[in-house]
Write a structure and sequence with these properties.
This is PAS domain S-box-containing protein/diguanylate cyclase (GGDEF) domain-containing protein. By secondary structure, this protein is an alpha/beta fold. The chain has twelve helices and nine strands. Strand 2 and strand 3 form a beta hairpin. Helix 2 packs across helix 3, helix 4 runs parallel beside helix 6 and helix 6 packs parallel to helix 8. The protein is globular. Bound molecules: ligand C2E and calcium ion (CA) (3 copies). Ligand C2E binds next to strand 2, helix 3, helix 4 and strand 6.
């Protein structure tokens, strides 16, 4: 009977239950979930350090699973990447995020400086032959200026790519689309390789932010962040820090010269309607 499904999971700890859902089960249901519009996007504000204003937001995808509740991207992005479904899923995320950014701009949110939207790209998307054409087509469809979109590619994916594989990102960068080097510090780039990457922003991984929470902060941690910021600025890259959870971290990262920040201290990821309140 249908009614038994209603509270079958009600007594279970939702966390341990979620962990128990098999990879196989999730992988199997990804295509129908995409067709059935079970995915949605939350937006997390990106804050300018100099004055605390909001410069944009990162789009973070979630899966509203009919039986297992909301699943975070770490649960299904690797599976979608593995099966190739990341390409249509990523296409959907890009289009929806660009549409949303356009809506914010039309409503005048962000004032004189229009809000930007950041979208994560996985390696499969990076290597897809239609990336440039599709991105340009979506920007044109909604009339969003290229500069209001930033694509985030992890440091490890970018560093692994050779010059030929980086060409699409270079083309997009030339059109004015921002390119962010995501999770910087967790990959294995030698600093000299930064010069050849078509990036406009470096996103410093959360692990560095964590190190600044100590009393007193580890002097080596401070020097490392200071060094990365100064090298980035020399190369013309702006620096965004991830995972800022406390005012102390925010203060220290600002002193170290970081340009913008993202984290629970400012705002958690949330529905697009909440973003104007963060401005
Ligand atoms: P990411 O790109 O590094 O995104 C930042 C993650 O840190 C997000 O996790 C965000 O919710 C979380 N976060 C933000 N502020 C804080 C903080 O102050 N403290 C802590 N502890 N965490 C914070 P989320 O939403 O679970 O996303 C996880 C990863 O999934 C993302 O990491 C990104 O790599 C991937 N992802 C998300 N959406 C997409 C997408 O549309 N496409 C692709 N390819 N990957 C995506
Ligand atoms: Ca990201
Ligand atoms: Ca990141
Ligand atoms: Ca990360």
């Amino acid at each position: 009977a249908k009614s038994e499904g209603g509270n079958r999971y009600a007594v279970a700890d939702p966390d341990s239950e979620a962990r128990a859902i098999s990879r196989h089960h999730l992988t199997h249901h990804l295509p129908s979930a995409l067709r059935g519009c079970e995915f949605f996007i939350e937006y997390q504000p990106l804050i300018r350090m100099e004055d605390g204003s909001i410069e944009g937001a990162e789009a973070l995808v979630r899966w509203s699973h009919p039986r297992h509740g909301v699943l975070g991207p770490d649960r299904f992005i690797p599976l979608a990447e593995h099966t190739g479904l990341i390409v249509p899923l990523g296409r959907w995320v890009l289009r929806e995020a660009v549409r949303q950014a356009c809506e914010w701009q039309v409503r005048g949110i962000g004032g004189a400086r229009p809000l930007r939207v950041n979208v994560n790209l996985s390696p499969r998307q990076l290597h897809h032959p239609d990336l440039v054409d599709e991105t340009v087509a979506v920007l044109e469809e909604f009339g969003l200026p290229a500069g209001s979109l930033c694509l985030e590619v992890t440091e490890s994916a970018m560093v692994r790519a050779d010059d030929h594989e980086l060409k699409p990102l270079r083309q997009l960068a030339e059109l004015g689309v921002g390119i962010a080097l995501d999770d910087f510090g967790t990959g294995y780039s030698n600093l000299a390789s930064l010069r050849r990457l078509p990036a406009s922003t470096l996103k410093l991984d959360r692990s560095f932010t964590e190190g600044l929470q100590h009393h007193p902060p580890d002097p080596v941690d401070l020097r490392i962040v200071e060094g990365i910021v100064s090298l980035s600025h020399t190369l013309g890259l702006s620096v965004t820090v991830e995972g800022v959870e406390t005012g102390l971290q925010a203060e220290r990262l600002k002193e170290l010269g970081c340009d913008s920040a993202q984290g629970w201290f400012y705002a958690r990821p949330g529905p697009p309607e909440k973003l104007p309140m963060a401005v």
